[in-house]
Amino acid sequence: MLSPKWEATRIYKYEKFFPGFYPEAIIPIFRKFNADGIRGWFAETYLEVNFLECYLAMNLCNNPKDDSEKRLEEFFPRYFGAAAVPMREYYREVEHAFWNPANYPKEVRERYSGILNLGTHTDRVNWGIGTPERLAKLDRLFKEAQAKADSDVVKKRLELFGKIIHYQMMEGRSLYEKRESIRRSPVSMTAVPMIPDAGGNPEKADFAKGEKMPFNTLYGNPDSTPVSAAIAHDRKYLYFTYSEKDAPKEKMPDDPWSNSIEFFFGRTPEMPFHHYVVTPDGQVILYLHSVTNGISSFRKTVSAARLSSRKNGNDWSFSLALPFAEIIPDGKLKTADSLYMNVMRTRTGGPALSWSPIFDTAYLSTLYRMGRVHLCGTEPCKPDIKGNFVGRDRVLDRDWLILGAHKKYATAVLSTDGL
Question: What is this structure's pTM?
Fold first, then answer.
């Protein structure tokens, strides 16, 4: 059953969300199922959020003649006791916001994904419904319900509702506003220069002609570890070099998720994207993150990356070559393309570093902070000259205007060879 919790926790990773209630809307939907002769129903749902919708739907499945409208209105005094009125208004406010197409952007209203509306609730769409004014009203109603609770059972039910739905919603709005503030901070941008062909060998790449890449903490602050990095390309490979000296000693040096450089590449700052993990012991691991039918996943995939890594005590340096054919999941890169990228130095000895600051510690929920990358240069053209130019008639004499203020209206005659 449709729930923004799926998008928030499984796809877009913003975690805390404005809920979706639709007990009024579910009744005619299941009556139509009954009228169409459907006699079976399998549901996947977050029961802790949409328990009322499931309660109404299953009763209609059991008895197509069930008086669902009456059952809906009876639910609130039976479940919330003296707090029934404010909680009924709470549900009504959420449903009339969530189920109203006018509250969604035009591109969402016109889109059909082929599987319900999975993927609809990006954080901006979700919190475009969960406005500050609407949350203020819901908070007022919930506090009224708490004040009217007339038994320990009702108080416990409201406590559970608050923990699972209301309080995470209130916190989610604050986190969204923080993300919006962060989005207004510019991401890193770079133009990657084209260098002489290195044949995919990172040791032969001329990084002196590459573009330097600064690294700071995830929050954009300077770090004491001396780090240098550069990036370049030769139309077939993207080259990257990194060096750190006298870095803090790692607490988990052999764990690739705790001691590595992580690269993120995508056509857009969202799924699908490729995720490289480069470790000091010379490994390059490539993961594909994607969404299929509303299910997000990641898996290892084959990489033809070439790495030269050198580790000496607390010093680490490496050079890396990534084939254009595999950098992004949805097609081969070419010169003059633009893409999104971020590079993170994951470590436990000191604060993690990044090229484009993410102002958070969760990499996957901050893809919108990926920097913008442009591959400089042009693809070599292939001349396509057609026709026989031998024996063509030539104009032997033509008046040409000689440019120049000193002989404004002067003319010259071409010689017979046209020069």
Answer: 0.69
